[in-house]
Amino acid sequence: MRRWNRALAKSSIDSAAIDLTGTCVYEPSLVAAPVTTVPTRDDDLHSPVLAAALPEGAPRPRGISAVAATLDAVDVQKVPIQPRVSRAFHANVRGGLRRSALAASSHPPATPSQPAVASSTACSAAGGLGGGTLVWLRPFDLRLHDHPALWYAAQRRRPVHVVFAWSDVEDAAQGEWQLAGTAAAFWLHHAIASLDAALRRRYGLSVAIRAGESLAGAILAAAKESGAEEVATSSACEPVGPAGHTANAAVESALEGAGISFKSFNSFLLRDVTQVRVDMGTYRGHFGTLTPFHHACMGQPPVPWPTSEPAALETPRVVLRSEGLDALGLARMPVRADGSVLDWGVPILTAWDISEEGALAVLRRFLAPGGGLGRYEKGRQLADASAVARISPYLRFGMLSSRLMFHEMKAAGAKDQSIVFWRRLVWRDLAYWQLTLFPRMRDEPIRAHYAGQVWSQDQHALERWQRGCTGYPIVDAGMRQLWATGWMPQNVRMVSAILLCEHLNIHWLEGERWFHHTLVDADPAINAMMWQNAGKSGLDQWNFTMSPATAGRTQDPRGDYVRRWCPELARLPLKLLHTPWEAPEHVLREAGVALGPGGNYPERVITDLQSAARASGDAIRSQRKRSVEWSDAQGYDLLVLPRGSTLAHDGRKFRVFTAPQYRNADTAHGGGRANARDEAVPERGPRSSERGGKGKGKSRGKGRSGADDDVRRRWGGMADSRQAFQAPCRAGTSHQSVLDEYMRASDAQR
Ligand SMILES: Cc1cc2nc3c(=O)[nH]c(=O)nc-3n(C[C@H](O)[C@H](O)[C@H](O)COP(=O)(O)OP(=O)(O)OC[C@H]3O[C@@H](n4cnc5c(N)ncnc54)[C@H](O)[C@@H]3O)c2cc1C
């Protein structure tokens, strides 16, 4: 008796979904004419095999885990369905409907006893050096499931070469957004290694690592060497860089010159965001916020069904030369003067299972009954991450398909359990939509007239924030967790961002840079969007209060999070754990806590949070006053809507959400016009360079008004934190010493 094996449950489910329903692999670019029976209800997913497996009248399981458990109990011999051909497919054929190209070419399903590895000799008929298809892996599609390029290569039944290409030169050209040296690069290294192992296990294929001056050169050389007639890859969603549109275009044109064809498939986002246009004629929220975007997405084609892992990939006769993953230096560690290695990657590897199975297991656990999903709505603010998915790095590197996640969420009834979680993947698409419309948003404020804002230059305060030594335990715990594990929960990210931008008045770009450097899920679009919003120059300017002094009580009500990451405070009673500055001297002494210079935990980097927030608000208001032409009659900011963003308002000055506290009367403009938001203008808004700053962070302070000087003077007084930071964080934690060492090492490298 052949039984479904739990280890293969996921692929079995996919196979079942594809081969038995014949409709789950709806991929418009692959299927000549869409199958007309694409399931529309959750229940249709996996239904034939489950229907066969379930006793009469038994409730239908939902989500991967429940389905896997059911399939575990299935004796496949008894499933009265012909594998590979679906009932729906039969019905279609009988009904004279057109066959799906995919249904027509389905493979025998993989079984535990027969791994679907095509033999080398078998491909001799495929020709010479191998020919076939070269699958160009990207830093955002590192998986086997729902990988349209791999799937496409499998359908061609020709030898498959899998290549990951890298160019130090092109990465370095990204400047501060280069990947090498970041925690995300470390993750990328391990993600490639894990995919390589999975390809070997499952298909007997390996990933050829190719480095070159340019990605285009590396892929062209590999394609020529392999004799491939075709290169298939994933569509990039970033505008520039090695993972960007530019890379796709450069490779395509290099291949064209050599007569090699090129195919690119979108599977990173739920939708093709380049096609999303919001309707600003009907009021459904402000431009660039979630509601109108979500609404516009509803008008797009439904989220495609994920494809399964290919059942077989044909191995080429000649294996492509590989330079080896280590040669890329993505996980290279700093070396001390004595030659020993400073390995900051260990805690990251301890905290995460960097593999596709790891990603799927996280999703399964989260969606399963009793998992985080049921607690998300009320518990997502908890710093212990017990009610969130903790899945972002897998999505970032494409180890988990967002489309698979979407359909699994649907099957698990996620919308009913947490509407906020249900929209999370829409937020992700929104970030990429914004990046497509504002390709400079990683560096320059979307509200271009904010570029002249006066920011604090307090480098010392910035370092305290980076090191988790601000004196605010919830922020320090978060920044230390970030450093050690490459991740922190959303609400802790928010309160840390608020401390940096609103209270320390340090430019949001500094936060974005640090997160880019330290997050394993560092995402060009989401990170930029969130930091722009935190810094108030984004489209969804943050308009909520969250204080570093009080957030700990709601985010870490039991104190475990702070105790774990700030062990020097662990013996403080809970009611003072988040506010050690309120503790009487004797309580501090008994808990072994000494605050400030010479102590083991720092004094607060800034004490008067309210005045600080007022001052940073003044900085925003004052720069808004200098550019009243970019405010409407009600004091809202105006923006020229980029081409391709709306149904009917592209190229016009249009109102964007502006928090009430910045909409002061003297910024209101409009010369008596009833509605300034709909004014047509011939060109884009002011470039940041025209507004007295380069948009690259610090304002130079030249040629400013008296109001600016006033703001700067107040900042000078408040933000000088040096005195309180003589000997910060002598906590003796290993984290701290690694961090200090790392800082020294990177200073030395500079
Ligand atoms: C200042 C700041 C910077 C951030 N930088 C990043 C970043 O570089 N990369 C990143 O993936 N997330 C970033 N986020 C968003 C968010 O904090 C993380 O996605 C989330 O904490 C990841 O944990 P999770 O997987 O448990 O998320 P869940 O809450 O379980 O959400 C599931 C998934 O939805 C997506 N998602 C969640 N929140 C958002 C959001 N606000 N915008 C877009 N997509 C979202 C993510 O892919 C996430 O993995 C940032 C947030 C802030 C406040």
TrEMBL record:
<dbReference type="GO" id="GO:0005634">
    <property type="term" value="C:nucleus"/>
</dbReference>
<feature type="binding site">
    <location>
        <begin position="521"/>
        <end position="523"/>
    </location>
    <ligand>
        <name>FAD</name>
    </ligand>
</feature>
<feature type="compositionally biased region" description="Basic and acidic residues">
    <location>
        <begin position="741"/>
        <end position="750"/>
    </location>
</feature>
<feature type="compositionally biased region" description="Basic and acidic residues">
    <location>
        <begin position="675"/>
        <end position="693"/>
    </location>
</feature>
<dbReference type="GO" id="GO:0071949">
    <property type="term" value="F:FAD binding"/>
</dbReference>
<dbReference type="GO" id="GO:0032922">
    <property type="term" value="P:circadian regulation of gene expression"/>
</dbReference>
<feature type="site" description="Electron transfer via tryptophanyl radical">
    <location>
        <position position="531"/>
    </location>
</feature>
<feature type="binding site">
    <location>
        <position position="376"/>
    </location>
    <ligand>
        <name>FAD</name>
    </ligand>
</feature>
<feature type="domain" description="Photolyase/cryptochrome alpha/beta">
    <location>
        <begin position="132"/>
        <end position="270"/>
    </location>
</feature>
<dbReference type="InterPro" id="IPR036155">
    <property type="entry name" value="Crypto/Photolyase_N_sf"/>
</dbReference>
<dbReference type="InterPro" id="IPR005101">
    <property type="entry name" value="Cryptochr/Photolyase_FAD-bd"/>
</dbReference>
<feature type="compositionally biased region" description="Basic residues">
    <location>
        <begin position="694"/>
        <end position="703"/>
    </location>
</feature>
<dbReference type="GO" id="GO:0006950">
    <property type="term" value="P:response to stress"/>
</dbReference>
<dbReference type="GO" id="GO:0005737">
    <property type="term" value="C:cytoplasm"/>
</dbReference>
<dbReference type="InterPro" id="IPR036134">
    <property type="entry name" value="Crypto/Photolyase_FAD-like_sf"/>
</dbReference>
<dbReference type="GO" id="GO:0006139">
    <property type="term" value="P:nucleobase-containing compound metabolic process"/>
</dbReference>
<keyword id="KW-0274">FAD</keyword>
<comment type="similarity">
    <text>Belongs to the DNA photolyase class-1 family.</text>
</comment>
<feature type="site" description="Electron transfer via tryptophanyl radical">
    <location>
        <position position="455"/>
    </location>
</feature>
<dbReference type="InterPro" id="IPR002081">
    <property type="entry name" value="Cryptochrome/DNA_photolyase_1"/>
</dbReference>
<dbReference type="InterPro" id="IPR014729">
    <property type="entry name" value="Rossmann-like_a/b/a_fold"/>
</dbReference>
<protein>
    <submittedName>
        <fullName>CPD photolyase</fullName>
    </submittedName>
</protein>
<dbReference type="InterPro" id="IPR018394">
    <property type="entry name" value="DNA_photolyase_1_CS_C"/>
</dbReference>
<dbReference type="Pfam" id="PF03441">
    <property type="entry name" value="FAD_binding_7"/>
</dbReference>
<dbReference type="GO" id="GO:0003904">
    <property type="term" value="F:deoxyribodipyrimidine photo-lyase activity"/>
</dbReference>
<keyword id="KW-0157">Chromophore</keyword>
<keyword id="KW-0456">Lyase</keyword>
<feature type="site" description="Electron transfer via tryptophanyl radical">
    <location>
        <position position="508"/>
    </location>
</feature>
<keyword id="KW-0285">Flavoprotein</keyword>
<feature type="region of interest" description="Disordered">
    <location>
        <begin position="664"/>
        <end position="750"/>
    </location>
</feature>
<dbReference type="GO" id="GO:0043153">
    <property type="term" value="P:entrainment of circadian clock by photoperiod"/>
</dbReference>
<dbReference type="Pfam" id="PF00875">
    <property type="entry name" value="DNA_photolyase"/>
</dbReference>
<dbReference type="InterPro" id="IPR006050">
    <property type="entry name" value="DNA_photolyase_N"/>
</dbReference>
<dbReference type="GO" id="GO:0003677">
    <property type="term" value="F:DNA binding"/>
</dbReference>
<feature type="binding site">
    <location>
        <position position="421"/>
    </location>
    <ligand>
        <name>FAD</name>
    </ligand>
</feature>
